[in-house]
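W.,

You were right to be curious about this one. When I first looked at the sequence I had no strong expectations either way, so I just let the prediction run and decided to look at it fresh. Below is the sequence, 259 residues in total, followed by the output.
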Amino acid sequence: MFRKYFTERERYQLELLLNQKTPIKEICTILNRSKTCIYREIKNGTVEMLDTNLKPYKKYCADRGQQVQDNNSHNKGRELKITNDLAFVKFMEEMILEKKYSPVAVLEHIKKNHLEFKTKVCFKTIYNYIHNHIFLNVTTASLPMPRKKVEKKHDKKRQAYNHNHTSIEERPKEIYDRLTYGHWELDTIESGKGDKTCLFVFTERQTREELIFKADGKNQQCLLKILNRIERNLTAPVFRVTSTVTLFPMPRNKSASAL
């Protein structure tokens, strides 16, 4: 019977045999491996190298094969605790299926009667194995009192919408042509420091001109203070040139409105 994995010593032995141009059939006999296993190991451990003339060539390296094996062993996850104890698995299945014991009751029965098994697990591990279909004959439905799966109800968040504002769909169509100055769009940029400060960014659609203001929060009061500041700085006649200001969705607000 051929072994499944190469050892590190066998990999260095394989590298030496390949360097000596030993036939694959003879290598199989020496290492007691199948041809498929030998070719797979050669494929995993082959690297591209450069000779003295800087010409690339491929060569099997035992270090590379061992590295691939270590990575695969690390990624395959933790081994099952009941793999090498078929007596425990059989006893667990009999107690659950025939005597209608729960996994907790089975473990207590083993402890009370001083039964000896190789496997030492807790009831949570047994439940996880049952839910993940590790046992061949025992499923969740086989348990004496299977728990019903509780479906979480995900309530849809109500969309915040200010009915006092005009919807973005109702703004004048000429705004989309970008032929008239004075149509602004407003968006917010949140702080990356985790505080409530943010930036209010006004962008003029025709010229791409931008006005950026820092505020202590992203609420209506902060926005009104900024609009009042713009009106004071530009004076009322100039400020009235602004035809529309379109407010794009802020965080937690899925609506957009035209002011």
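Here's what jumped out at me. The radius of gyration is 36 Å. And, maybe more interesting for your project: The beta strands are 46-50, 56-60, 166-167, 183-190, 198-204, 210-215, 244-247, 257-258.

Coffee later to discuss?

I.
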